[in-house]
Structures are given as C-alpha cells and as structure tokens.
Amino acid sequence: MQKHLHTTSTFAIPLLGAFSAFLAVILFAFQARSADLKVVLTGNTADFKNPDELFSLMDQYLAGNPGQVLWVLNGDIFPDSYSNEQISNWKIKANSILDRAPQLQILLNQGDQDWQDSGRDGWKKVEALEKTLKQHKHNRFHVFIERGCPGPWTFSLPTLEIVIINSQWWNHPHEKPIPSSDVCSIADTDNFIEELEGTLDEVNDKNVMVLSHFPLESLGNYGGRFAASSYLFPPLVGNAMVAFRQNVGTRKDIINEQFDAFRYKLDGVLQDYSSLIFASGHEHNQSIVKKGENFYINSGAPASGHYAARSKKAALTSSKSGFIEITYQENGAVAYQHFVINDNKLEKAHSDILMQSACENGGLGVKNTLFQPCKNSISPSSKMDVASRNDTIVAGGGEYASKNFKETWLGKHYRDSWTKPVKVPFLDMDTTFQGLIINGKGGGRQTTSLKLVAGNGKEYVFRSVDKDPFRALSYELRGTIVSQVLKDQTSTQQPYGALAVAPLLDKIGILHASPELFVLPKDNKLGTFKEDYGNLFGMLEERPTDKIEKDKIFGGAKDIEKSFKLFGKLYHDHDNRVDRHEFARARMFDLWIGDWSKHEDNWKWAGYKDKDGELFRPIPRDRDHAFSRWDGIIPWLADREWGMPNGENFGERIAGLRSLMWQARHLDRFVGNELSKTEWVNAAKEIQNAVSEADIAAAVNQMPAEIYVKDGQEIERKLKIRIKDLQTYAAQYYEMLAREVDVVGSNKAEYFKVKRMPDGSVEVTVYDVSKENKQADLSRIYYHRTFYPNETREIRLFGLLGDDVFDIEGEAPKSILVRVISGGGDDSVTDHSDVKGGRPATLVYEKGENTAMDLGSEGRNVKPKDEHLYEYNRNAFKYNTYMPIGLITYNPFTGVALHGGVTFTRQRFSKPDFSSKHAFKASVSIKGNYEFSYANQFRQLIGKWDGISQIMISRPLNYNFFFGIGNDTRKNNDAPKNYYRTQYNSVSVSAGAQRQFWKQSKIELTANYEIDEGIKRNNSYLFDNPDIFGVKKLNLLYAKGILNLDFRDRASLAEKGFMVQLTQHVGHISKSEDKVFSISELELEQYASTRTKNPLTFGLRLGGGVTKGQLPFYKLFSIGQLNDLGGYKRNRFTGESKAFLNTELRYQLTETKNTFIPLKIGIRGFYDVGRVWAESDPSSARYWHQGYGGGFYVTPFREQFAFNVSAGTSKEESLLLMISIGSFFR
Q1: CA gap 1188, 9 in Å, rounded
Q2: Domain parsing of the chain, residue ranges
Q3: Was domain 944-1221 assigned CATH 2.40.160.50?
C-alpha cells in the first residue's frame, strides 16, 4: 500500500508490528474496493491551543463515517514551542484514536512551521520531530518527513495514488539536505521534476492526489489576496505592505524568492495532466480552484480561518474554521464536502461534485479521466494476430518537407532523410528476444516510447523515430509558432544516426545499447496501447536496468544507476569510483560524432563490485543529436558563440567546442576532474587507433540504404576528416576544463595532501585517513593530479562530510590559488607553504567550531557573504559569456545612426549570479554625431554592495527640446522646424556602489563628474538666448543617491503593486553663482487590476521635485510627452521645481498564442496634469497643464518588450504621437 520512492534511512519494525501492518493493509484494501474512499484534508493543526481539540474533531467526524477514511495532516502540525514530550503525548492520543477507529488512517506531511518556522535550525528540528513521531508508531500512522528530503514519495490505495511533496525544502532559506550531503537520493529540482513526471506517467487507472503544504495558487493572504481594509489602514503603509506581500513576499508567501521559481515550474508540469487534485494546507482558509483540467484545494483552517477572496474559478472559498473532505466514489466521480466548526461542533456546509464519472453520459462538468471503472479492460493477446508480416515502407517525418524559402531561413537540415520512405520490418513480438510483452509507457519529454519485457529475461524500450518538443517547452510557449518552429527543427537531427553510432562504440569498448529499426504492428498483443501506439515507427533497444535477474543485467554489471544515483554513491563512499579513462574515451567519441546532448540524464552507469566498493562504467544513451546539421539563417545565428549555449553543427571542423560539450559541462568537471591532458589526448588516440576508415563506412551503412546516398555519404566523409584532428580537440577541451578544477572528497574521511612546487605547479593527492593517528594512509590513494600555472587558475578542495585533513606545504615564487571548503565534520586544515608575494595562496571556507586550523602565512579563513559557499554544488560552474548588439535607427536630430555594443559577463567562485559585467556601446550617425560609453558592475565588491562605474562621451548628447524656463513659456509655431531642438556636448564619469534587495528594489550611491557645453546652432533658441546658464562650458561635480522600493509585479506593464523612488543630487558647478546645488525628486506608482482573463488596470503615478542653487537648463526639471506630462512636446516646460499626476486606464483585449510568440494586445487611455515652478514665473503662470489621450499596446512574450503607441491631446497639440518600449510612464 505504501511505497517510498526516495529515502535513505530505514527504521526497524518488529515482526509482530510488520504482521499487524500487513493485516491492516489487506483489511483496508478489501474495504476500499467495495466502498467510497474519503480523504480529509487539514493543515495548520498547530493553531489548536489544545491538541485535544483536533482529536475531538476527528471523533465527531468518524462517528458519522464508518467507511474508509484517510485523514491528511498537511503540514504545520505542531507549534514551534512544543517539546518532545508534548509531541510524544500527542502521538499517544493519535494512536488511541487509530485503535478506536479501524477504518481510519492518518498521513502526515511537513510544513514550514515544522521547520522552526523557516528558522536557521529548521532542518535539525524537523529531523528530531521525525525521530519522535516514528518511535512506537502505529501501523496506520504514516509519516512523510524522510529527513527533510524534497520527495516525491507515493502512498498507494486501491483507487488512489497520493504523491507527497515536501514544499518546505524549496522554501527553506537555511541549511537543508543537498545532493552532496548524501542524505537524500534526490535533492535538486531537475531530478525531482523528472521523478515526479515519471511517477505521474506510471499511474494507470487510479485517481491521483498531490500533497504539498505550500499551495501553487491561493485566495488568501499568502497568495497576495487581501481585504480592502488592508490597503487603507494604516494609510499608505497598509497599501505598501500589501504590495510587498503580493510581489516580494515574506517566507510564508508563495511569491517569495525561495519558492516562486519552483512553484512556477511545478505548476507547468501539472498542466500536462488532467483530473488530478493538488491539495495544500498552508493558507488559513478553505478553497477549491479549478485550473485547466485539475483542481487546486487548500484546506488549512481547522482552528481559525482568515481572509479568502472570491474568484470565478473557485468552487469554494471560505474563511470559516473547518476542513474539506474529498470523496472518491466507486463509479469514478469525485465529490467534496465542506465542514465548518461552530463552538467546537462539526457541521456540514456546502458540497458538490468536482469531477463527474467518465462512465456517465451527459453533464457539462469535468470528467474524471484517470479512474474509469466502467472502461472495458483490454487484455493483450498472448500471441500476435498475424504471426509474420511483410516489410513496410514508411517515412520518419513527412511534415519536415520544405521549399526554398523555408530552407533558407530555417535550414535544409536532414529533411531528405526524414521525408524519404524507407523499407522497415514489422516487429515480431512473438519471436524477437524470445517474445516481447508491453510493460507500460516509457519516459522522455520528446519521445513516444513503450517499455517491454522479453522472454530472455531482459527489458527493452521502443522509442519513436520522430520527436515532439512540446512537453519540453515552457507552458507559455506551447501552441505558439515558436513551438511549431522548434518542432520543425527536429529536422536538424539525423533520424537514423543511432544506427551508425552503435557499431562504432563496439570498436572502442564503450557499453551501449544497439538499436534496431521496426514498425510496431497495430496488433491486439499491444492491449490498451494498440490504438495509440499501433504502427509506430521507431527503434527497439535494450533498456539497462538492474530490476531483473542478476545474470541478465546489462553488461554483466551488479547495479545499473541513473546519474543522480551514481553521484549519491560517489558522495557516500570514496571507494566508489568511475572508470575515468573509459569516461574520457566516451566523451571524446561524443566530440567526434558531434553529439551535443550528453547531459546527465543521457547516461546510465554500470556498477561492478570489487573488494572495496564499486567501479562504474559509463553507458551513454540517446543519440538523437549525433551528426546534427545546423544550416539556414536562423539556426546559423543560434549557433554563434553568443547565441544558444548548447548545440553545434556537424561539420568537417569543430567551430564551437564549448557549445558542443556544454550540456555535459558539470558532468565532465565532476567525473573527469582527475584526468590529465595526457589522458584526454590518449583517449582520443585510442579511438583513432581502434576505428579505421572501413569501420566508419560499415557503420554508416547500417542506416537504411535509401538514406546513404542522400546523407550517409556526407556523414561518412566528415567522420573521416574529424577523427584525424581528434587529439587536437582533446587537448583544447582539456585546457577548457583545467582552468578551474574541483577536487571532491566524500562523506568519509580523506587526507588532502597539497604540495606547491618551485616551478609553480601544484600536486594534489587524496588519501584515506589512518584511523589510528589521522595521518595519510599512503597505500590507499583516491586522487592524484599535478596542476600547472599556465593551465589552471585555481583549485578547489571539497571535503564534504567526514573528519577530513588538509595538509598544504611547499615553497614557490608563484603558485596556483587553492580554496579549501572543508565541509562538515571535525576537520583539520594546515598550511605550511610559502609563496612569494602579498596575496594569500590558500583561502579556507570553514564555519565549524571543531575544526583545527594552522594557516601560517599563506592561508586565510574566509567568511563568505553567501553561506551556501560552505557547500559543494556540482552545478555551480558558469562560463564567461558575451552578447553583441547592433541596431540602425533614425531620428530628426542625428538622421540615420549605426549603434553597436557588447556586454561581457564574468564569473567567479565567490560571487552570486556573476562576478562582473562590462558593457561597451558606441554609435555614429551620418551627420557626424558619435557616442561612446562603458559601464561596469562588480558583484559584492564591498560586503553585499556592488561596485558600479560608467564613462560616457557624447558629441553631442540630445536633450530634444528646450522652450525656455518657466511654467508659462510660449511656443512660437512660426519658428523654424528645428528651432527648439537642443543638444550639448558631454563627457561624464561616475563611480559608486549599489545594493539590490527585495527582488527589484535597490539603493544606489555614486560620485559623478561631468563636462558639459551647450551647442548654439544658427536659428535656434540657444543661439538667440546665449545667456541661458548651461550654454557655456561647465564642470559639474556631485554626489547622487537613489532609494527605490519597488513592490510591483513587474517593472513594465505592471498590473499590481506599489513603487516609490527618492533621488537626491548634491554638488558643485563651476562658474555658478552658488557654491552648492541640490536636486531632490520623489515619485510614487500604484497599480490595481481586475482578476479576470483580460484584466482592466488602473495606474497612478505622482511625484515632484525641488532644486536649490543655480543649475544649467539641462539639469532643471522638464515635463512633457513621455516625461511626466502626455499630450505635450518632450521637455515642453522647464523649471526649478515640478509636480505631476499621471493616470492611465488599460484594458487587455486579448492574449493569444496563435502567433510566432505569445502576444498580449490592449488599449489604454491616459489623463495627466503637471506644472513647473520658476523664480522668473509671473503670477499668471500659476496653473496646471493637462494632457489626455489613448492608444494601444502589443506585448511580445515579455512585458519589457511591450510596444506602445498613443496619441495625446492638449491645448497646444491636437494629435501628438507617442511611441515607447516597455512602461508607459516615464
């Protein structure tokens, strides 16, 4: 009944207890098959002041429900103040109620409060809670804590499969299980999602419920929904706090940075399924929301209820205390009953059908497609209907046919191979491998596949030749033309390439499957898979697994492991290891055939037991991207070094080694970290020696004969050319890997011996630790490599857990930087080395109090700003990148202008996101204007403050328009067209620091210096008014500060939230009458929207500013057009102070995916008022300017790319066109 997918700890159960549990399972299964199953959902039971209230509630409920009941305690079970004794007493009462109610089972999940309310010692607390709960546990009391691992786990009932998720693992900001801690078999998001999808895919004819403490959608405060009074009180502060909770979030809000990304990803996964229930218990209310074909239920107010917003999507919302009961009916229907609690009395409230039985005709509601008891069970035939069939003619993918235009832009690729009919045999399931039987659907996000069991005792998989990347796309891209283009780009793959790869792997001694091409017959032996899989064109190959008889395991191995399981074994014990030479040979083979898709999931590992541990040999799989052809304009651009990070055209020469090997960059740096340059080159040499040109020709001829003339000959020719240069590529790839190297120990004790040599090289040897004296056991070497300063910049030693010893010695004039990350345990770090120069050559990251350190003159203990640097992250490495830009523009000032630039992003071990960014930009126009700028950002230069600086030279800098100073300046409509257009030459330099926080908020402090000079053109306003301050050359030296609190949902096209920004300048201007000047500016934004499919949004922006001292005209406040006042020319009014109010009403007309990329299209209207103040203003200037208008916007994919077109009207302009990208305001 109960199955744990992932757990690394077991608890002994006495024989009598096991027998009792077995009887309980049989009894429950028998009764559940003959009656409805009720699941009671409760969370936040910690809110009960007295635990007896919970058990009293259960007694009341059970008195009226003699049938089978599963009571779910979905997180936040106990108050943080509970002692172990109180928890033990609680458990005794739970056991008592289980004894009294044989129809009851209790399932317990964990929540944030069980993790010390996301406190620093949360992991320790939840482990202690699990230990207490599992002592003398009742056999019908099921605890899913599993040492704080993320899951997923399954709990199986006859008609219901429950999948349990520990959502707090993502939400927790402090120490928790990670892959290298060897606590969980899964402790990262990617492997979790893969396992969850596999679990959901394997469920057959059963209901599915997914349990998580945290919700994905919420109608309560934690989901950003608040009563109107919360916005109003306290005034202003209440509104800001609501915006913060909605868009930034506390640790309890589902939008918070820790949880939000996973929430989005998990929600996208669930949209691939239908008829399932996602049940949470975090929010203190009851709600049932329909999303897609699924239902999201929150039931978390058994003791006290909080606000619950109404929603058209909701079948139920309630802020009353109570809970929700789900009934899985025998006929397949699913119903709910809402219970409320009044004066400790349980009362039935609203009830309804959530999903109708698929067995019943009629009805407009959601049908339960997962569990259909009336469906005729189609048993597969024991023998095929037709024992043998003639071969058939079939094409891999006729939809990839194209004409010249499509081939020019999207590429010709292998379209001929895909569309060419080939002769293929039908799969004889009676005789092949002594008979084949379907064993369920296979995995894979792009391939249709079936798992089969053979009469020879082995397992096989049948994978379709054609691919569909639909499920691999983000949810927002599905159904767009982008998804169609990506489907079309399947034609970059050689559909029959895997047939040529297998015989070449035979030559170099790498374990692999050998695919064969078949058509799966539409035969009754397929059973229920006949309709969907009959006549499927694909490849049959052995499926490496150890879930079969030991003597049948692939490659004669003891174990077959997925990559994440292998990593766990390597972390667990240094006696487990990978055959690195065979791995290097496999990777050089990938390089040779251009297979750029060797990420971790495309490997399995065959384990062979020896006297100490296990030796693992690699089993590369999935050759979809071998020999990829990337031609056409768009694929060519994507294949640039600054384009897609992975992917490579299979040519005669390798142009992009990094992108070819990118998907395995973390795997290569972990498994291949001991490989020297000689070993990589020798791996390439072994392939050259083992494979002859005749072998290549024979291998390529394994592809269908019809394909050889079309594409096979070209593949053969390129393989023969590329193999000659393989040693050169091996050396180049080694150099890429050698720059930064991680030497990773295990969770056992290791002795890291580091010797700095006089020539600058560094020798690293890892030994076992002698148990007697904690010295190196020289007879047991686990790692040895010499690093050279012309190849390697730094070496990182990771001890992981265990009582490790780090011993560094040697003298050198220069040496490689060594970082010691000792990990947990009672470690010892000693550095007696001597390196000439001022900087320490050894940096130690150690937070343990029990670590002994003697760092000498070269070592320094580092206290990192990010505590995660104390941990080993296998996926931490990032490449340096660059991104070029180019653009041609036109405007009336400069005419046609050419713009170009490049941004470089640099990475470093101790910096989050990036180490530094450097942006160079330049432009030149046909009128002689030019501009150059350079800006940088250095992450966490001082504490958590980033260093920033910028230099810009503009000849000239466009100010657009200047109409004079004052609120009542007059525009002469008879003046020449360019009379008010204004420019000035400028050279500016700034340097300072900024700190980003709360997602989008920041503080910025800079020192600035400018040299500016206005340009007096003939027949211009400045020419006629040469005494305006700013026309002559000025030097400005000033400090600038910005405080921005941004609680909006996004910066562009915001729909909700609040933003306030305060800007302050203080400085000195040469030739000014005042010694000091200041500029102060404040602005606020507020957005509110309807919660509808096409929202109506009201936006409000207000602000103002004041100046002191004499300022050049281009530093005064100006309003007009997109700058604070629509309906007027840009910079129409200039003054020493300003105030403005901008309003907009925006309505989204539609959101469509039936376009190249997702589009949002809407209309907007605006009304603005504003004015400036100037000392020269007459009394008649005391009035406000008004502008209004409207327009439309188109948002392609992301809101920051929104294209806005509006027309504004005022007393001066009848129809002023305004165009902007991104936000309307400013």
Answers
A1: 68
A2: 34-368, 392-734, 739-870, 944-1221
A3: yes
pLDDT in tens, 510-522: 999 999 999 999 9
Question: Class assignment of domain 34-368?
Answer: alpha beta
Query: Which residue's entry shows tokens 């203990």?
Result: 861
Q: Provide the CB-side half-sphere exposure for 329 (13 A, CA).
A: 18
Pairing of strands 422-424, 436-441: unpaired
Query: In Å, how far are 915, 944, 998 from 1003, measured between CA atoms?
Result: 19, 11, 11
pLDDT digits (tens, 9 = 90+) for 132-183: 999 988 999 999 999 999 999 999 999 999 999 999 999 999 999 999 998 9
pLDDT in tens, 1053-1107: 999 999 999 999 999 998 777 779 999 999 999 999 998 989 999 999 999 999 9
Q: Which amino acid is it at 649? A: N
Q: 610-651: per-residue pLDDT in tens?
A: 988 999 999 999 999 999 999 999 888 888 888 899 999 999
CB 1051 within 8 A of CB 1043: no
Q: Which of 124, 132, 102 is nearest to 23 (CA)?
A: 102
- The helix or strand, by DSSP H or E, that contains position 568, with its residue range, turns out to be helix 563-572
> Which among 297, 296, 349 has a CA at the least distance from the CA of 320?
349
Cα–Cα nearest to 109, from 278, 274, 271: 278
Q: Compute how many other C-beta atoms are within 10 angstroms of the C-beta atom of residue 113.
A: 26
Q: How many CB atoms are located within 10 Å of the residue 811 CB? A: 13
Packing angle, helices 693-700 and 497-508, rounded to 10: 150
- CB count in 10 Å sphere of residue 837: 11
Contact between 625 and 597 under an 8 Å Cβ cutoff? The reply is yes
Report which of 1193, 1087, 1091 is spatially closest to residue 1150, judged by C-alpha positions.
1193
The Cα 444–Cα 602 span in angstroms is: 11
Residue owning tokens 């399954």: 154
How far apart CA 126 and CA 169 sit, in angstroms, is: 11
Using CA atoms, how far apart are residues 334 and 353, in angstroms rounded to an integer?
Answer: 6
Spatial distance between the Cα atoms of 638 and 658, rounded to a whole number of angstroms: 14
Task: Output the DSSP codes for 176-207.
Answer: ---GGGTS-S--SHHHHHHHHHHHHHH--SSE
Q: Is the dihedral of CA 428, 434, 440, 442 positive or negative?
A: negative
Q: Averaged over 687-708, what is the pLDDT?
A: 97
Please measure the distance between the N-terminal and C-terminal CA atoms of the chain and give it in whole angstroms: 61
> ∠ CA(214), CA(217), CA(219), 5° rounding?
105
Helices (H) and strands (E) in the chain, counts: 25, 58
Distance CA 621, CA 562 (A): 11
Partnered with residue 277 across adjacent β-strands are 209, 295
What confidence tens digit (pLDDT) does each residue in 827-886 have? 999 999 999 988 899 999 998 778 899 999 999 999 998 888 999 999 999 999 999 999
What is the per-residue DSSP string for 1147-1195?
EEEEEE-SSSS-EEEEEEEEEEEEEEE-TT--GGG---EEEEEEEEEEE
Token readout for 1094 is 């096409």
Q: In angstroms, rounded to a whole number, what is the distance separating the alpha carbons of residues 86 and 1140?
A: 61
Write down the H helix ranges in 219-363: 228-232, 237-247, 257-270
Q: Are 160 and 207 in contact (CB under 8 A)?
A: yes
* Rounded CA separation 581/578 (Å): 9
3-state secondary structure 794-829: EEEEECCCCCCEEEEECEECCCCEEEEECCCCCCEE
User: Among 254, 213, 215, which residue's Cα sits nearest to residue 109?
Assistant: 213
In terms of pLDDT, which residue wins out, 889 or 555? 555
CA distance 646 to 126: 40
